[in-house]
Amino acid sequence: MRRSTFTDQPVTYGAVGGTQAPDLLYYPPKGYRPLIREARLGSGEERFQAAAASLMTWGVQRGSGIKVTDAREGTGVQYEGVIFNPDGSPAKLQEHRQSEAVFAEDGSPYIVNGMTAVLKIPFWPIHVSAPVRVVYVIDEQNRVGFAYGTLHGHPESGEEAFIVEQRDDGSVWLVVRALGRPANGFYRATYPILRLVQRHYTNKYMRSLLPARAA
Questions:
Q1: Which residues 6+ apart lie within 8 Å of 88 measured at CB?
Q2: How far apart are CA 119 and CA 140, in angstroms?
Q3: What letter would DSSP give residue 45?
């Protein structure tokens, strides 16, 4: 797949931004399986800032043993996320980091809306390639994160969101929200295996930003 065409590809599902819906578990897009998981990472402003910086430089993926390759800002249409009202109706466009690049202390660039990458997921003796596009970025005082949607060639069709938030009691949490289904007939036929792999990596996601892991 040539990079010049890869960065212009659309995502392979229609419910872009659907992982922001408050009722995701109860009313997912038809045919898609929803998922919401949370893990406490600690407490305090320092823990929040450290976890957010790691998250926004692919820390969840890399901490789970996934290689992030071919990361590019993208040259095609950049999707804007949607904020949802309590009743599930769309409220307004989500604001994004668009005007200037943001970098972590080690110089790693932050994930930005519209970025594309190919995730190389270990699957026994091989690595499965999973192309994705970042479809929205969250940049709030106590809540930072992003979501990516699947591109052609990904085993699944859908969206995953990764959010670090500091709650009113000072505790810091990683929240993973996802909706997905097999991308084609081959992956539908092997869905039980695909589900086991998904569960394995979701469990690794939840441990990826823990302080002991970061050390």
A1: 21, 22, 23, 27
A2: 26
A3: H
* CB distance 147 to 135 below 8 Å: yes
- Can you give the pLDDT of all 215 residues of the chain as single tens digits? 333 344 567 899 999 999 999 999 999 999 999 999 999 999 999 999 999 999 999 999 999 999 999 898 854 444 554 555 666 555 554 444 444 567 656 557 899 989 999 999 987 777 889 999 999 999 999 999 999 999 999 999 999 999 999 999 999 999 999 999 998 877 777 767 778 888 888 999 999 999 865 44
Quick one: which H or E segment has residue 50? helix 45-55
pTM given for the model? 0.82
CB-CB contact of 209 with 174 (8 Å): yes
Six token digits for residue 144: 């930072």
| CA–CA separation, 159 and 135 (whole Å) | 9
Kindly tell me the burial class for residue 86, based on how many C-beta atoms sit within 10 Å of its own C-beta (0-12, 13-18, 19 or more): exposed
Q: Please answer whether residues 195 and 49 qualify as being in contact, where contact means their C-beta atoms are separated by less than 8 angstroms.
A: no
- Which amino acid is residue 86, in one-letter code? P
Q: What angle do CA 159, 165, 171 make, to 5 degrees?
A: 140
